[in-house]
Amino acid sequence: MNFSAKLINWYTVNKRDLPWRNTSNPYYIWLSEIILQQTQVIQGTPYYHAFTTNFPSVFDLANAKEDEVLKLWQGLGYYSRARNLHWSAKYIVEELNGEFPNTYKEILKLKGVGDYTASAIASICFNEVTAVVDGNVYRVLSRYFGIETPINSTQGQKQFKQLAQDLIDPNRPAIFNQAIMEFGARHCKPKNPDCNSCTFNQNCQALISNKVDVLPVKLKKTKVSIKYFNFIVVLANNSYTILEQRKGNGIWQNLYQFPLIETKAAVNEQEITKKINDLGVIPNNDFEISLYNTEDIIHKLSHQHLHTKFWIVTTQQSLKNAISTTKLHDFPVPILISNFIEKFDF
């Protein structure tokens, strides 16, 4: 029995009953694929249900406000996925008359969609013979065939894509693609895979050569930078505060946060007081300040670690653009801010 047939047999017996596997609607498949980028199934499933409930069609998503989309996405991270999803929904409605693109090449034109996502949608929804290659697929193929080419190199990406394309069952591309992703996610795991019960253990080159723990090979990661974030949590007249919307192309674009002072190192109360004075947020600089967390809250992103402190600033002054603290939950905020709002007794 060849690789593809054996893989599909395994999938038939072991596949999970996931909500997006009960439909071939490309809108729903697209939602699931975008949500599951950088997100595990157990975490992403409630978001999938939330999006399909709140935006049951691409028209509903296109007509939503960005803040509504970001709020629903809150907690998933990598918020560019949500913004791209919203942009692409508008593109489908306004440019394609609401008809979802039905070929790999056309699906690739959607913002935030790369080779993997386009291949998944094209094969699952339109039976196009185009192989998916994601982290799970890299792991399965590199181990089974004993390939040591770095998976995050240009050469490696081409090599694995071609190999997956050579292996895909032309008569069952959707099943093959879902099978190899499922096998990587559930059996050929990154750590401590159960090689003894593996359907491929007689021919797996990584197992034969004792290289299961070293494959796949990845080039060295980008150096992680450390940043110091000081959030200024203003409490005016005990019931008003200030939020600002992040702009630019950095992290958390278009999400809301408390006024932020970024420093090159940790600062003390005297130093942060001077910086608050320089901001001019509070009239006459009439306020009292206290530190909420003495130990930094470390928030880890892919390429940076944020060492965070929340400074509580109380004042009796009337503030411009202040909002009622009762409305804090209405705004889409990063999970770091959301966690603080939940814990702090406003």
UniProtKB/TrEMBL annotation:
Keywords: 4Fe-4S, DNA damage, DNA repair, Glycosidase, Hydrolase, Iron, Iron-sulfur, Metal-binding
Keyword Acetylation attached: no
Cofactors required: [4Fe-4S] cluster
Binding note for cofactor: Binds 1 [4Fe-4S] cluster.
Function of the molecule: Adenine glycosylase active on G-A mispairs. MutY also corrects error-prone DNA synthesis past GO lesions which are due to the oxidatively damaged form of guanine: 7,8-dihydro-8-oxoguanine (8-oxo-dGTP).
Pfam name, any one: HhH-GPD
Family per record: Belongs to the Nth/MutY family.
InterPro entries according to UniProt: A/G_AdeGlyc_MutY, DNA_glycosylase, HhH-GPD_domain, HhH_base_excis_C, HhH_motif, MIG/MutY, MutY_C, NUDIX_hydrolase-like_dom_sf
Protein's name in the database: Adenine DNA glycosylase
